[in-house]
Design brief:
With about 240 residues, this protein is an alpha/beta fold. It is built from seven helices and six strands. The chain has helices at about 25-35, 50-65, 105-120, 145-155, 160, 180-185, 210-225, and strands at about 1-5, 15-20, 40-45, 70-75, 125-130, 170. The chain has a six-stranded mixed sheet with strand order 1-4-3-2-5-6, with helices on both faces. Bound molecules: zinc ion. Zinc ion binds next to helix 7.
Length: about 240
């Protein structure tokens, strides 16, 4: 685990905020800060294709004034089975049917489990995650039923839960369209130039313009009536950045 110095905070309530470095989780961090939480941002190096989003997470945590930011390691590449953790599986560049190969088996279950453990140690009773069931790719672990089930698990699985301090899992983006997420983030001062959503960004964080994540993000800026600040690769899709 790497860590940055954690700043003392005068806020009374601590929260763990899962921060991938993408647009959604950056917005969630800004919302949790607005709500008065001392936010401890947690990013996970899970064997994803590129490190650009982790670098973005560090920038976002610093820019939004998180009380701390840690990067934990979990090797989901040891399982594979996803275009994001197995280099032999290509990232699709066209929309398809069903749950796409960019789904990472067990990812959000593991991320929430790590957040749960850290929350117990911090004495935090709140965990924030940027899952969304509107403009998303159909991943099963982004759905409201999953979040509710994990919250129930957290009550049973933790000392805090058993002692009457159950953890709450907040998914404030759950029912928002991407354009609404962007508008909310802009109101809260999120600089989306610092975020990386692309599944196959290059080392500098420049986006491909073609993958699901790029398409949802670009459509969100369009629908929000906001210029897309994303940095695209030189060989990005011709419609990228328009
Ligand atoms: Zn992309």
């Amino acid at each position: 685990m790497s860590r940055v110095d954690e700043q003392p905070s005068t806020a009374s309530r601590r929260a763990v905020v899962l921060l991938s470095g993408g647009l959604d989780s950056a917005t969630v961090l800004a919302m949790a800060q607005r709500d008065g939480f001392a936010c401890h941002a947690l990013s996970v190096a899970y064997g994803q294709r590129h490190g650009a989003e982790l670098a973005a997470a560090a920038r976002v945590a610093a820019a939004l004034g998180a009380a701390g930011h840690r990067v934990m390691q979990v090797d989901l590449a040891g399982i594979g089975g996803s275009a994001l953790t197995d280099a032999a599986i290509a990232v699709p560049v066209e929309p398809g049917d069903g749950i796409p190969v960019t789904y990472v088996p067990a990812r959000n279950t593991l991320l929430l489990a790590l957040a749960l453990g850290w929350a117990e140690v911090l004495g935090a009773e709140d965990i924030f995650i940027g899952v969304n069931a509107v403009d998303y790719s159909g991943y099963p672990d982004c759905r409201p039923a999953f979040v509710a089930a994990f919250e129930a698990l957290a009550r049973l699985a933790t000392r805090a839960g058993i002692e009457g301090r159950p953890l709450r899992i907040h998914a404030p983006l759950q029912h928002l369209a991407k354009a609404d997420i962007i508008q909310e983030g802009l109101r809260l001062g999120v600089d989306y130039r610092t975020t990386v959503s692309c599944y196959q960004a290059d080392a500098d964080g420049r986006a491909c313009g073609q993958c699901d994540a790029c398409r949802l993000r670009r459509a969100g800026f369009q629908a929000a009536g906001v210029a897309d600040p994303t940095s695209y690769r030189y060989d990005a899709h011709p419609s990228a950045g328009r």
